[in-house]
TrEMBL record:
<dbReference type="InterPro" id="IPR004154">
    <property type="entry name" value="Anticodon-bd"/>
</dbReference>
<dbReference type="InterPro" id="IPR027031">
    <property type="entry name" value="Gly-tRNA_synthase/POLG2"/>
</dbReference>
<comment type="subunit">
    <text>Homodimer.</text>
</comment>
<dbReference type="InterPro" id="IPR000738">
    <property type="entry name" value="WHEP-TRS_dom"/>
</dbReference>
<dbReference type="InterPro" id="IPR002314">
    <property type="entry name" value="aa-tRNA-synt_IIb"/>
</dbReference>
<dbReference type="InterPro" id="IPR045864">
    <property type="entry name" value="aa-tRNA-synth_II/BPL/LPL"/>
</dbReference>
<dbReference type="Pfam" id="PF00458">
    <property type="entry name" value="WHEP-TRS"/>
</dbReference>
<feature type="domain" description="Aminoacyl-transfer RNA synthetases class-II family profile">
    <location>
        <begin position="259"/>
        <end position="600"/>
    </location>
</feature>
<dbReference type="Pfam" id="PF00587">
    <property type="entry name" value="tRNA-synt_2b"/>
</dbReference>
<feature type="coiled-coil region">
    <location>
        <begin position="75"/>
        <end position="102"/>
    </location>
</feature>
<dbReference type="InterPro" id="IPR009068">
    <property type="entry name" value="uS15_NS1_RNA-bd_sf"/>
</dbReference>
<keyword id="KW-0547">Nucleotide-binding</keyword>
<keyword id="KW-0963">Cytoplasm</keyword>
<dbReference type="GO" id="GO:0005524">
    <property type="term" value="F:ATP binding"/>
</dbReference>
<feature type="domain" description="WHEP-TRS">
    <location>
        <begin position="54"/>
        <end position="110"/>
    </location>
</feature>
<dbReference type="InterPro" id="IPR002315">
    <property type="entry name" value="tRNA-synt_gly"/>
</dbReference>
<protein>
    <recommendedName>
        <fullName>glycine--tRNA ligase</fullName>
        <ecNumber>6.1.1.14</ecNumber>
    </recommendedName>
</protein>
Length: 734
């Protein structure tokens, strides 16, 4: 009896202490569910982690109580004691089942009235395709994976996003915009490293030859286990999440080992897979009819800016810092494109290359963004298993989390750009690259990641690429892509002087003399001093000449290396570059998801789709409806339409006899923010899409009011407080 009481008390105590946070969790879940109805259509990833931990604790309690029941039975305890212990066990099992149900809802993206992630995504995509925002390319020929056409509203949204990008970055930052060819000679991409290294790892079905992207198969396996296998332990879940976190950094050997360890097979046939091997993602072509000049469709727009640095620097008055920008198409021959607009073979990039003195990366306008506070995910937080947290940008720079002010300034500007477009700030984070993710030359890199139904999607990369790109093209082309800082007074400096003895080199290398001379002169100080020490001790040394692709023997008589005091009137250096790179299609798709919601019709018999686009990006700013088919109303509608056209406002006039409610619903589904309804010859109503509130204005004022609100000179709240209100009950609003 005493044994049972101890067990019962411990079980009761455990249950009481656990139920309190569980009740808190349920309360939080309820609160979050209300928030999702308003802002987020599916539960957060953090909720799943909380529930999985709770499930593990509850399973431990069930196991402990099960052991207690077995112990009581073995001890032949009183029936009442055994029954009480069994009742407690059943209670714990019910609690465990409740948590399992919540976890199943969280991992599948559903719960408390929220849409399942896949169902939500399907609803959004069906609406986008039906309303012609975008459709598969070459649809009548069954399409081609990874290629899409933008329809009229999609083109308008894209044009508005790019227009705002130009205003926000190019105009406000006085950038130099260029437009370079899509076809790029091989030598350019050889210098940049794309020819040798722009690859993804691919595996093949060993029987059918079907190709798959290796990391995608591993990612799908991990996600499938996390979402559908509730029996996995918290440790196993942590392992799978770690694999997902470091997925991009796995070598071909490590990736192949994980595929074998988890028993991953070809998705369609379940056949075994080959070992991963690299596949270059560039589309190859030839320039000219001879086929002797190889080229590629550019995988990014940045190289066109780098190769034009010398002319752009001159155009800018030989002054740093300055930025060049380019919007254009890029091409990547994806192994297995999927996820709609998120992973395609032809896409629009908007890229900025901000050239700066590597010794001074401060920014004169950093104070304008220093007080911004948003979700940041530094590498230390990632490595310790923590989540992203809000950090003031000024603090992130002062603490060295962000490497420098210029990089921080662009992170802040990217945040403002995305949130003003309509991206939910609570589903936007800036994730710092882990040390093993960054190229050896990079000083610091951050990705703006947006949460969608697919998870966190990298949409903007902001990187301090050091001087790598300009140096690479300098070495390959022989043209110095450098900047100068002129001194007000000459400075005496100790300079390393490398003097190749051309006579000796000519005798030794004959026709290759020039390439050896250039390689010797291009040595950095460390290489030159090491060569000098070796020549003095041994009389000769092996030296790699990249342009020859082999080592040559350099003797002491072939080169002199010394340090001399020289007067300098200027400093010549290779600028560093800060590069924000925007995937426009990805941003637009995430904007579609963040803007989409449903609401019941007036009759309550159906759910109506709405895109809550800000006026800034809405494909059509305004619609004009005569309330009923009436010649006088139609004439007024045409007058208003002409006024809107003159004011440069995109709009649509609808004089069909369809009910006004159905016309409102049609335009809400296109994300049109305002609707002008003509119900008299002297005044009209203006309806706001999300609140469905209406005001009444004179016919002559309608275009002016719409212009001021859509241009951002005033807000709907200001308009609402200025003009008479109109009851929506007088119109058949949906």
């Amino acid at each position: 009896m005493r044994y049972f009481l101890l067990i019962a008390l411990s079980t009761h105590s455990f249950g009481h202490n656990f139920l309190s946070p569980l009740a808190t969790l349920r309360s939080a879940h309820s609160t979050l569910s209300h928030a999702f109805t308003r802002r987020r259509p599916y539960p957060t990833i953090q909720m799943e982690e909380t529930l999985r931990k709770a499930l593990a604790e509850k399973q431990s309690a069930v196991d402990s109580q099960g052991n207690a029941v077995r112990a009581l039975k073995a001890a032949k305890a009183a029936k009442a004691d055994v029954d009480a212990a069994i009742e407690a066990l059943n209670g714990l099992k019910l609690e465990k089942a409740s948590i399992e149900k919540q976890l199943q809802a969280a991992v599948s993206g559903a719960g408390d009235g929220s849409l399942n992630r896949e169902a939500f995504r399907q609803t959004v995509n069906n609406t986008l395709e039906r309303r012609l925002f975008y459709i598969p390319s070459f649809k009548i020929y069954r399409g081609v994976a990874g290629l899409y056409d933008y329809g009229p509203p999609g083109c308008a949204v894209k044009s508005n996003v790019l227009g705002f990008w130009r205003q926000h970055f190019v105009l406000e930052e006085n950038m130099l915009e260029v437009d370079c060819p899509c076809v790029t000679p091989e030598v350019v991409l050889k210098a940049s490293g794309h020819v040798d290294k722009f690859t993804d790892l691919m595996v093949k079905d060993e029987k059918t030859g079907t190709c798959y992207r290796a990391d995608h198969l591993l990612k799908d396996f991990c996600n499938e286990k996390l979402q559908k296998d509730l029996s996995i332990t918290a440790e196993k879940a942590a392992e799978l999440k770690h694999v997902l976190a470091v997925l991009d950094d796995l070598s071909s050997e490590e990736l192949g080992a994980k595929i074998k360890e988890y028993g991953i097979t070809a998705p369609d046939t379940k056949n075994p897979l080959s070992d991963p091997y690299p596949f270059n993602l560039m589309f190859q072509t030839s320039i000219g009819p001879s086929g002797l000049s190889p080229g590629y469709m550019r995988p990014e727009t940045a190289q066109g800016i780098f190769v034009n640095f010398k002319d752009l620097y001159y155009y800018n008055g030989n002054k740093l810092p300055f930025a060049a920008a380019q919007i254009g198409q890029a091409f990547r021959n994806e192994i297995s494109p999927r996820q709609g607009l998120l992973r395609v073979r032809e896409f629009t990039l908007a890229e900025i290359e901000h050239f700066v003195d590597p010794e001074n990366k401060s920014h004169p306008k950093f104070s304008e963004v220093a007080n911004l506070e948003f979700l940041m995910f530094p590498r230390e937080e990632q490595m310790s298993g923590h989540s992203a947290k809000k950090i003031p940008l000024g603090e992130a720079v002062s603490r060295g989390i962000v490497n420098n002010e210029t990089l921080g300034y662009f992170i802040g500007r990217v945040y403002l750009f995305l949130t003003r477009l309509g991206i939910d700030e609570d589903r936007l984070r800036f994730r710092q690259h882990l040390a093993n993710e960054m190229a050896h030359y990079a000083a610091d890199c951050w990705d703006a990641e947006i949460e969608s139904s697919y998870g966190w999607i990298e949409c903007v990369g902001i990187a301090d690429r050091s001087a790598y790109d300009l140096r690479a093209h300098t070495d390959k082309s022989g043209v110095a892509l450098v900047a100068q800082e002129k001194f007000s007074e000459p400075r005496e400096v100790e300079k390393l002087v490398i003097n190749p003895v051309k006579k000796e080199l000519g005798l030794a290398f004959k026709g290759n003399q020039r390439m050896v001379v250039e390689a010797l002169e291009a040595m950095n100080e460390k290489e030159a001093l090491e060569m000098k020490a070796t020549l003095e001790s041994k009389g000769e040394t092996e030296f790699l000449v990249c342009t020859l692709g082999k080592n040559v023997t350099i003797t002491k008589s072939m080169v002199t290396i010394s340090k001399e005091i020289k007067k300098e009137h200027q400093r010549v250096f290779t600028p560093s570059v800060i590069e924000p790179s925007f995937g426009i299609g990805r941003i637009i798709y995430c904007l579609y998801e963040h803007s989409f919601y449903t609401r019941p019709s007036k009759a309550g018999d159906e759910q109506l789709n709405v895109f809550r686009f800000p006026p800034l990006v809405a494909p059509i700013k305004c619609t004009v409806f005569p309330l009923v088919q009436n010649q006088q109303y139609e004439e007024v509608a045409k007058v208003i339409s002409q006024s809107l056209t003159t004011a440069g406002i995109s709009h649509k006039i609808d004089i069909t006899g369809t009910s006004i409610g159905k016309r409102y619903a049609r335009t809400d589904e296109l994300g049109v923010p305002f609707a002008i309804t003509v119900d008299s010859t002297s005044s009209v109503t203006i309806r706001e899409r999300d609140s469905k509130d209406q005001i009444r204005v004179d016919v002559e004022q309608a275009a002016t009011v719409i212009k001021e609100v859509t241009d951002g000179r005033t807000t709907w709240a200001d308009v609402w407080s200025t003009f008479p209100h109109q009851s929506s009950a007088s119109a058949d609003d949906e």
